[in-house]
Amino acid sequence: ASPTLPEAKAALAAHQATLQHNHRALLILASLPTAILPEIQAEVEALGLAAVLRSEDDDPSPDDHVLIADDEYEMGLWYRLAPVCFMGGTLLPGPGIAPRHPFEPAALGSAIIHGAITDPHAPEWVQLDGASAARLVTDAAALSRAVADLSAPDQAAMLAGNAWSVSTGGAAVLRRIADTVTAALDPAA
Question: Whole-angstrom distance between the N-terminal and C-terminal Cα of the chain?
């Protein structure tokens, strides 16, 4: 989600390694600025991978390896479809879109991988990391290892379950507060 250009290249390398043991895997690069698309497409070609561009209304075929989803308005769809999500803007600086909130994939069932650059969502990353609800990586090699580890459905499910619990943990309290405020503001009450 929203990788910088260096992160997109690292994700492509991690995906190429994943294809060694899971030849049907599909990498979705989502929420990308149009300025970096040509370089990403060149990297895809250099790695010998087949890609489709979502903005051209292309759907991936069984022989495609990468879906480039450059429209940021479909992020909920991609989080729901992806069992594992790398949150861009957290590992390698470079051109890209601002990092997205980590509770987005957490609330939609995706296991989360992120780097050490946690601003502007540092408190949320602390919560997720403290609850074993996200995987912290420090470089491109660690990203490849994390993707390989989380290719095991039980590992991804454990992380995603923990993330969902963290992201929705305060919902009941928030609902009680909202009900109290709404009742206090209701002139009929």
Answer: 45
Enumerate residues 6+ apart whose C-beta is below 8 A from 144: 10, 13, 14, 17, 18
Which amino acid type is present at position 2?
Answer: S
Beta partners for residue 136, in sequence order? 114
Q: Is the dihedral of CA 168, 172, 177, 178 positive or negative?
A: positive
Q: Please give the Cα distance from 73 to 62 (Å, whole number).
A: 25
Q: Which amino acid, one-letter code, is at 155?
A: Q
Residue pLDDT, tens place only, 22-75: 999 999 999 998 999 999 999 999 999 999 999 888 789 999 999 999 888 899
The HSE-up count of residue 163 (CA atoms within 13 Å, CB side) is: 30
User: pTM above 0.85?
Assistant: yes
> Which residues, including other chains, have CB under 8 Å from residue 65's CB and lie 6 or more apart?
15, 19, 25, 26, 27, 44, 49, 50, 51
Chain center to CA of 40: 17
* Encoded tokens for 161: 């379950």
Cα(166)–Cα(93) distance, integer angstroms: 27
CA–CA gap between residue 37 and residue 146 (Å, rounded): 25
Instruction: Detail the DSSP E strand segments found in 2-93.
Output: 27-30, 51-53, 66-69, 84-86
Structure tokens at 6: 């260096």
Copy the structure tokens of residue 13. 């390398």
